[in-house]
Amino acid sequence: LHGALPLENYELFQRTVLPVDLDPREADRYADTVLSSRDYNATSLAGQRAALESDVEDILPLVKSPVLVMHSRNFMQLQPDESMRLAASISGARMALLDGADLFGDSEQGLRLVNEFIAGLPPEASEDGPQVQGVQTLSAREVEVLRLIAVGRSNQQIADELVISLNTVRRHVSNIFDKTGVANRVEATTYAARNGIA
User: Fold this and answer.
1) Across residues 143-151, what is the average pLDDT?
2) Is the pLDDT of residue 133 over 60?
């Protein structure tokens, strides 16, 4: 997004990413409203900084979930080839160009593409059935628990988040360890990343 412009001149950056269909007075009012929100600007700037400093290219081939990458065809702040490169780095990802110049492009077209993409996904198995390719023995709930282990949640935090008892979490963790052959949470996290669960 304009390279380092958000960090060098945040106001100029914000004025360049305004919706394209605003007349000049509306654009000024919109920009003034955005720029007057201290919380929004702090969050936005932190997001811009993270985007500039992060690189996920090495882990994209590990993604095993179905992925739809959409890009607004005439969005000036990011060229379509960046999104195409992203999609090409993820096995089986689908790339779609949307009409429009705003960040999200034509919303009706985007929603239609998302619905078509979801409709084309294989049906989910039951909670006790296989859920993730390559992890056929884990139930849906065990996959959920494994995802939470992989992001560093404790058993109690998992219980709270999934609204289940601590004993149930312990049983799921034990089952996950048995089924995947891992010995501890670090190995479980590695297993989750390797199998596209994390």
Assistant:
1) 91
2) no
Cβ-in-10-Å burial (0-12, 13-18, 19+) of 183 comes to exposed
Cα 101–chain centre separation:
22
Question: pTM, whole model, 2 decimals?
Answer: 0.45
Judge whether 111 and 85 are in contact, CB under 8 Å.
no
Residues facing 70 on adjacent strands: 96
Neighbouring C-beta atoms of residue 193, cutoff 10 Å = 13
d(Cα 60, Cα 32) in Å, to the nearest integer?
A: 38
pLDDT the model gives residue 155: 94
pLDDT the model gives residue 73: 84
Q: Check residue 2 and give left, alpha or beta (phi > 0: left; psi -120 to 50: alpha).
A: left
What is the spatial distance between Cα 113 and Cα 31, in angstroms, rounded to a whole number? 31
Secondary structure of the chain in HEC code, one letter for each residue: CCCCHHHHCHHHHHHHCCCCCCCHHHHHHHHHHHHCCHHHHHHHHHHHHHHHHCCCCCCHHHCCCCCEEEEECCCCCCCHHHHHHHHHCCCCCEEEEECCCCCCCCHHHHHHHHHHHHHCCCCCCCCCCCCECCECCCCHHHHHHHHHHHCCCCHHHHHHHHCCCHHHHHHHHHHHHHHHCCCCHHHHHHHHHHCCCC
Q: Is the pLDDT of residue 3 over 90?
A: no
CA distance linking residue 160 with residue 153, whole number of Å: 10
